Each structure stands twice: as C-alpha cells, then as structure tokens.
Amino acid sequence: MHYKGIIFDFNGTLFHDSDLTEQSWRIFGKTLRAEPLTDEEIRTIVHGRPNKIITEYLLGREITNDEALRYIDGKETV
C-alpha cells in the first residue's frame, strides 16, 4: 500500500497547548453567544470534538460545511 501523506493532530499530545485552545474558544464563544464557555463546557463540549460540532453548540443550530469553514477561520484569528 502506498501513502501520499499522514495526518496527525499534535495538539495536546506533542504540543501542550490546551490552554491556548481553551482561551481561543472562550473568546470565540463570547463573540457568538455573548458569554464565554464555562470550564464545564470546555471539558464536555470542546475537548476531543471537531470545530464544526463546537460551533453548532455555540450557535444552537446545525451549520453547513461552508458556514463551518467561515466560522472556524474567524476563530483562528482570535
């Protein structure tokens, strides 16, 4: 079998940057729903979940993949 590449998520495994991820989601959460994510929400909603699912939670509705990309781009600039 021939592979063209590998995808591996280093965040939280080789790079201990959970504090930065949490801070980013708290700020982004506040922009989407006027209040930051709580510690409980960070533990139960953010960690281990895709950005699209987290964003849908914050918005309280399902979003399209195109919407998700736009929102995630916005989050990454926080």
Set down the secondary structure blueprint.
Elements (H helix, E strand, L loop, with lengths): L17 H16 L5 H8 L4 H9 L5 H12 L2
Account of the 3D structure:
With 78 residues, the chain is mostly helical. Helix 3 crosses helix 4 (65-76). The chain has helices spanning 18-33, 39-46, 51-59, 65-76. The model has no long low-confidence stretch (mean pLDDT 87).
Structural class: mainly alpha
Report mean pLDDT, rounded to a whole number: 87
Global morphology? globular
Q: Radius of gyration, rounded?
A: 14 Å
Largest sheet: none
Spans where pLDDT lies below 50 across 5 or more residues? none
Question: How many angstroms separate the termini?
Answer: 41 Å
Strand portion, in percent? under 5%
Helix content percent band:
55-70%
Total number of beta strands: 0
Counting H and I runs of at least 4 residues, what is the number of helices? Answer: 4
